[in-house]
Amino acid sequence: MPSNTEITVSQLSRLVGLPNAPTIVDVRTNEDFDTDPRLLPTAERRDARSVTTWATELSSRDVVVVCQQGFKISQGVAAWLRHEGIKAETLEGGFDAWRAAGGLLTTTDKLPPRNEAGRTVWITRTRPKVDRIACPWLIRRFVDPHAVFLFVAASEVAAVAERFNAAPFDIDDTFWSHRGERCTFDVMIEEFGLNSEPLDRLATIVRAADTARLDLVPQASGFLAASLGLSRMFRDDLEQLEAGLLLYDAFYRWCRDATDETHNWPSGRTTG
């Protein structure tokens, strides 16, 4: 049984991908990290030896600290964070336990370089509908919760990307784009190593809505209708993105937890 300063793998796995997920801090040694350089979704790499210099950056966040096996390194860092008034727990069993349980691990070698604030920067065309909301949602929830998204005129994407060191996505002839019948959302799931039953199910819905193949899954028509409705509600692309994240949060929870659930208004009432 975990202590009151630990969180179990199963408990943390239920939080990953949700908007209220804790900040995950990976404090494995460089030697341990080099043996498996994948990260828990959205995890930040930090040097345990300099925790006194970066602890306050995590103020007001709920934090889970991860080292290789959940012992002295993560427990020492979490204790220091709590000393600074930060709610911090360690992952029981550490990275080894998460990996052994088949928890999602993000491959980050294709991730664009971070800016001076430690955020990845992405760029695409204005007026997003499906894929250009889906991809930011995936990045924010599973890769970089602080990622920056720029929406510019299609003719200016390449030039602005070069000027601001941003990664183009859902743009022809770029790495992060459609491949055959797969849309950019599919590509990101694959390249980040995030294949899992809930995300693969969501990817089918996104692909069907994004590529006009509404016969693939019954949810696609409603998903497309909601996406197009959102695009009509907001003139500002960033406001639309923030609103759209909730749509994807809801569909992800359905894909993860509710596909077998049905609902019907109570019937069989007698009238008199």
Write structural notes for this entry:
- There is one protein chain.
- The protein is of the alpha/beta class and 272 residues long.
- It has two domains: 6-101, 3-Layer(aba) Sandwich (Oxidized Rhodanese, domain 1), CATH 3.40.250.10; 114-258, no CATH class.
- 41% of the residues lie in helices and 11% in strands.
- Strands 1-5-4-2-3 form a five-stranded parallel β-sheet. The protein has a three-stranded parallel β-sheet with strand order 7-6-8, with helices on one face.
- Helix 4 links the parallel strand 4 and strand 5 (87-91).
- Helix 6 (131-142) runs parallel beside helix 8, helix 9 crosses helix 10 and helix 10 (220-233) runs antiparallel to helix 11 (237-258).
- The chain is globular, with a radius of gyration of 20 Å.
- The model has no long low-confidence stretch (mean pLDDT 95).
Topology, number of strands: 8
Mean pLDDT: 95
Largest sheet: 5 strands, parallel
Into how many domains do the coordinates divide? Answer: 2
Question: Distance N terminus to C terminus?
Answer: 57 Å
Strand content: 5-15%
Structural class determined from secondary elements: alpha/beta
Regions with little confidence, pLDDT below 50 for 5+ residues: none
